[in-house]
Amino acid sequence: MPSPSYPAGNLVKDRHEGFRILEYTLLGIIMLAVMLLCICAGSVSIPVGDTVTAIWNTLWGQPVPAGISQSIIVFVRLPRVLCVALVGASLSLCGGAMQGLLRNPLADGSTLGVSSGASLGAILAIAFGITIPGLPIGGTVIMAMLFAFMSLVLILSLSYRLDFSLSTNTIILMGVIFTMFANSIISLIITFSGEKLKSIMFWTMGSLAGSSYQNALILFIALAVFGTLILRFAKELNAFAIGEDNARHVGVNVKKVKFAVLISVSALIGVCVSIGGTIGFVGLVIPHMTRMIVGPNHKRLLPISLFLGATFLMLADLLGRVMLNPLELPIGVVTSFIGSITFVIIFYQSRKAG
Amino acid sequence: MSEKSLLHPVDSCMETQEKLLDVRNLTVRYGKTTIVNNISFDLQAGQWLMLAGPNGAGKSTIVNAVSQGTPYTGRVYFEGSDAARRKPSDLARSMGVLTQGHNVSYSFTVEEVVKLGRYAYSPGIFSSTDDEDEKSIHSALELTGMLPISQQSVLTLSGGELQRTFLAQVFAQNPRLLILDEPTNHLDLVYQKQIFGLIKDWVRDSGRAVISVVHDLSLAKAYGTHALLIDHGNMVSSGKIDEVLTRANLEKIYSMDVYQWMENLLAQWQN
Predict the structure, then answer these.
(1) In a mutagenesis test of the B interface, which of A165, A250, A292 is the best target, namely the one with the most B β-carbons within 10 Å?
(2) Does some domain include residue B100?
């Protein structure tokens, strides 16, 4: 018997699914405000006015007034904050899409083991020096995308064999096992990697420190291409979220949609992991919170998750930077701390719902 | 005309146009096990075909194959063309399916679930619901009595309400052929009567037909016009309901006197 599991969404009057300009403008303003805050705050605090001036003047090619540290604002913090925002948006979108596709509120790159798979790909690329001429990071990106997709396919086909309904327990168990498997290989590679150790350790922690504009550009292109593809399938994801059989019965081309969404999700996660390492649970926490506020309709859930994910991850990164100042906590540590608690709450709720 | 409509020799291709559904030599295998063995039948508008037989006979597999949900060999002609060659959205405009249990996990509203029934009419990204969609959704909600709670979350519904929600979805889909896979399996008698009553009214409109998988033979007899009796994947009998669901046929496949058993059950109520 069905029973309520998300009380907030039980009776929602006037739940429009269309595009609401005011809502998105507001979300955009909040996101930009948080972005500004994250650039100003840190080990060295910078006044808002100075930050805006520095960015504005650099943007239009004008000299930055003396006394404003252009290098910190424009070359250290801004690219990092941009990368954090893009990763947060991408991971939330992926989490939301997978939770709909698999009809499983606990699905996420980190719980399914896709992130670990992507890390393994990225680490293999680093350890064996796989690169693309002209774009040093290209090899890592491609390998991470490839491994993310292969892991997702492997985990899903193993789960399907065990339990055709892809129940929460089966799929999470598979994800955990696969994560352990991938991590064991990662440890093996680290053991033999010698001087490359330092850059490899970074993947296992998850951090966007030292991100460049090139990183931001790659993330932006990936989000523009694959994010748009995912958003296009909002209606189909609604059908999947109600049930895959039901989706087929109402006329959704289930094979095509599933394939397209899985490809997009693994590509996006692969790019995020290759640049920021494993940043866990963002894709779990944000869509879950968004669903509690606006309901499960993907036409609104996905775009709003995008904004909230960017905002959330920027704040998590800020927390990691300032909490133990001058020490810096990797962003993955912060999100895993928040995320694992949320995971327990969701798991508890969905178990109660049966 | 309905007397000879159900089971035809396979070679009468010329008549395909008149039939809503024409299933020929349908065989389904999982690995080396044959679940459905070379079954042929057809269906015309106005008919309600009951698929009956013991557990594991292959009833659900047959309807799954007809709705293109499982691989099969043989041919399924629907509205005169090969169903396997039609696009999913195209097929869904003419063929709707209602299954038994629905395990919903997100708090979609009743209306959102019903609205998905219109997916096949505007599968594009930018297409929004038009007047006809709104009308279909509204009348489906009204017909099934779900209008007063159309904004309620499906997680809060009772089993009967949830099944009526999905019935409303398939009504909004407005198919010509409705496939039912034991839609009232877990429901109380009241809901059973309600759902079957609604479908009986629905099929009265011209051009429509129903195939349903049933366990309850009395229910099959009460609502069906035709029947297909299956045992271990093989067809035992097919034709008009009264000719198929006979005491002799049932005794053969259930290995017990079904009629006597039901009579005994009913007799308990006599005094």
Answers:
(1) A250
(2) no
